[in-house]
Amino acid sequence: MAMAPPDSSQETLRSRGLRLAWFIVVWDIIEGAVDVTAGVLAGSIALVAFGLDSAIEVFAALVVIGQLHGRTSYGTALKLIAVSFFVLAIVMVPNPGLLHLLRIHAASNLDQA
Questions:
Q1: What is the pLDDT of residues 26-74, one digit of tens each?
Q2: I need a labelling partner for 57 at 20 to 30 A (CA). Which of 6, 35, 66, 67 fits?
Q3: Is residue 54 part of a domain?
Q4: Domain assignment of residue 2, yes or no
Q5: Residue at 112 is within a domain
Q6: Which domain holds residue 24?
Q7: pTM passes above 0.90
């Protein structure tokens, strides 16, 4: 059974969604690079982690782009994005406990004054 072509309002919304998703990809790549660089220079694991989180956001936006192009179903897109957030949780959750066990603590800015 052939599908009817999308009407102009659907195509307009899809086009707008694609532009927004590509904007998110570009923004998050820049944000991630800046945050990771600043985190490394400042010795801030939190800032590095915040920058790496941008990779998850880029992945999610790319999944949305695939869905808007008709390459990925809605269910598959949700599963891919969910897996990416579980990976982020697996990476991030143990870090505070590990740092505590190793007795690595952030220095206060007041200590440097």
A1: 999 999 999 999 988 988 878 888 888 898 899 999 999 999 998 888 8
A2: 6
A3: yes
A4: no
A5: no
A6: 13-103
A7: no
